[in-house]
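Dataset card, provenance and construction

Sequences and ligand SMILES were collected as paired inputs. For each pair, a complete structure of the chain with the small molecule in place was predicted and serialized as C-alpha cells. The example below shows a pair involving zinc ion. Curators did not alter the output after generation; any descriptive sentences attached to a record were derived from the structure itself.
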Amino acid sequence: MNCVLPIFPVADCQDSVLYAAPVHEVSICTAIAKIAHQAAAGRPVERVRVDVGHLRQVVPDTLCHCWEMVVFNTPLDGVPLEVSEIPAVIECRQCGARTQLDEPIFRCGSCGSTETSVMSGNELYVTSLDITADASGP
Ligand SMILES: [Zn+2]
C-alpha cells in the first residue's frame, strides 16, 4: 500500500493506522500541514487555526484526529489544530432571503425557491498560525 502522505513522509507509517483514517480528512490535513510548514518557514508553530465550511462535510473531531496522525514525527508534531466551523448560508435569488442550511439542500427557507447562491459554507482555509517568537534573534 502506498503511503498517502507525500508532503511529510511519516517514518513509522503503519498501514493499520492509515486504514483507520478517512482519506478525505487525511488529504485535508496533509494540505494544512504543507501550508503551515511553508508559512512557518522553520519557526516553531504553537497552534494552527482553520476555517472549515459546513458544506465540506468534515467532522472537526475527525479532522483533529487525522491531524495528529498526519503531523506525527514531523516538525508540527504536537501542534494543536483549532477548527472553526463556518455555517452554510445560501441567498435566494427570488426573494433575497438568506437561509442557513443544516443539510446540503439548496432551497430558500422563505419562499422555497431553489434559485439560490451559496454565501458561505465552502470554506477550507488555514486562517492563522501561532508562531513562537525567536527571543534570541538579532
Ligand atoms: Zn426566497
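Derived descriptions for this record:
The chain is about 25% helix and 25% strand.
Residues 92, 94-95, 97, 108, 110-111, 113 surround zinc ion (CB under 6 Å).
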